[in-house]
């Protein structure tokens, strides 16, 4: 798989189901050879942190403050 691509929830769920029934990482990798072995391990490890198979949001650049936000900040600093 490409470096920046994310597994679909269906594939993640299938990997975790296979692991739950006793399949090992290498056996799952032979079933899905296009997915790296390390990705399979990581997917199984992180499954308990997901809610309903949905990934946690990634952190990103902070939102740019709007004019109203800037005014609110200035008013708060002038009051103190």
From TrEMBL:
Coiled coil: none annotated. InterPro entries: Homeodomain-like_sf, WH-like_DNA-bd_sf. It comes from the Eukaryota. Gene3D superfamilies: Winged helix-like DNA-binding domain superfamily/Winged helix DNA-binding domain (1.10.10.10). Residues 46-55, 64-80 have a biased composition (Basic and acidic residues). Residues 46-80 are annotated as: Disordered. This is Transposase Tc1-like domain-containing protein.
């Amino acid at each position: 798989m490409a470096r920046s691509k994310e597994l679909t929830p269906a594939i993640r769920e299938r990997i975790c189901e296979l692991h739950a029934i006793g399949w090992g990482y290498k056996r799952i990798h032979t079933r899905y050879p296009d997915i790296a072995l390390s990705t399979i391990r990581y997917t199984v490890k992180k499954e308990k942190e997901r809610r309903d198979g949905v990934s946690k949001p990634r952190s990103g650049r902070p939102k740019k403050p709007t004019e109203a936000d800037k005014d609110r900040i200035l008013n708060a600093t002038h009051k103190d």
